[in-house]
Specification:
By secondary structure, this protein is an alpha+beta fold. It has two domains: 3-164 and 240-276, no CATH class; 169-232, no CATH class. Helix content is 18%, strand content 41%. The chain has helices at 12-30, 108-119, 256-268, 270-276, and strands at 64-81, 88-98, 103-107, 132-136, 141-150, 153-162, 169-177, 180-189, 192-199, 217-223, 228-247, 252-253. Strands 7-8-9-10-11-1-2-3-4-5-6-12 form a twelve-stranded mixed beta sheet, with helices on both faces. The longest helix is centred in the first third of the chain and has 19 residues, at 12-30. The radius of gyration is 19 Å and the shape is globular.
Length: 281
């Protein structure tokens, strides 16, 4: 199963079930039943990097390190089906390309959440977004970070794996994407067949999600089943000289298979998850 399907059967369940989780936490807070605690439910427990609302400043990140300098920022629209495939959900993704070869793909809602935390302006629910963030380093390692943004807590589950390798077939077709002349390429990855459009005039080995390995910047990718697509937003290329920062969040590190089980458990069993985060009743 591909990584975009790892979270709640393709990602749609995240949108539907997170609303239930938000309501559950709000009810606990409103009734005064949610207290900070250290209850641990065996292997299900996922540590929270921030305390619940009203428990001081310990929710802030403890420290941070600069791991690269971003020289390029690109914006993409990611589209995927909701749970019953009645409508497409959109997430606004940001990709940073570092001078040292690191790449980061993250939802703008997660970036906004960090700004709110830093400004101490609070956080409840950030709306519809895809909860996965990817950082691929220059050594061929890819790290996935799952984030569930609720209140001033943000459950984080991390797993690492070798960076994806793609066997691309270059095709003669061309098309315009975001005002750039692009060439078509196709590949298969984890059971899905993808077609991509890359721009030879921009000789950067990068693209949304994990996609890379083409002789030009990848501006559009979609799977042939129509379940997922990433499309470059016209004009959304910015030259930067900004640090790429890793904050010392408290996170649960696991293998990919275990991370999948933990993530599914959060949404299938929201009540024990809430208790494991410190809620008491």
């Amino acid at each position: 199963m591909d990584d975009y399907s790892i979270a709640m059967k393709g990602g749609a369940d995240f949108i539907d079930r997170s609303s239930t989780l938000v309501l559950f936490f709000v009810v606990l807070l409103w009734t005064g039943q949610c207290q900070h605690g250290t209850t641990i439910l065996s292997d299900f427990y996922v540590p929270a990097p921030y305390r619940l609302l009203g428990y001081g400043d310990d929710w802030r990140w403890r420290m941070e390190r600069v791991y690269d300098t971003a020289w390029l920022e690109l914006h993409y629209t990611m589209r995927f089906w909701n749970q019953d495939k009645s409508a497409k959900i959109e997430d606004y993704r940001i990709m940073y390309v570092g001078k040292g070869g690191n790449r980061k793909d993250v939802s703008w809602r997660i970036e906004e959440a960090e700004r709110r935390w830093q400004a101490d302006s609070g956080l409840l629910y950030m709306g519809e977004y895809y909860p996965m963030e990817w950082v691929t380093d220059s050594q061929g390692q890819s790290v996935c970070l799952f984030r569930l943004l609720l209140l001033r807590q943000s459950t984080m589950i991390e797993y690492a794996e070798p960076a994806a390798k793609f066997a691309w077939e270059l095709l003669p077709e061309t098309d315009s994407v975001g005002g750039y002349l692009c060439q078509k390429a196709e590949t298969e990855y984890k059971g899905r067949n993808y077609e991509a459009w890359f721009c030879p005039e921009i000789p950067i080995d990068a693209g949304p999600y994990k996609f890379r390995g083409l002789p030009g910047l990848i501006l559009k990718v979609e799977d042939k089943a129509g379940d997922y697509s990433w499309t470059f937003i016209d004009g959304a290329i910015q030259n930067l000289n900004e640090p790429m920062i890793e904050r010392d969040y408290i996170r649960r590190k696991a293998s990919r298979s275990k991370a999948r089980r933990l993530i599914q458990g959060i949404f299938e069993k929201p009540f024990p998850y809430a208790v494991s985060m410190g809620a008491k009743y």
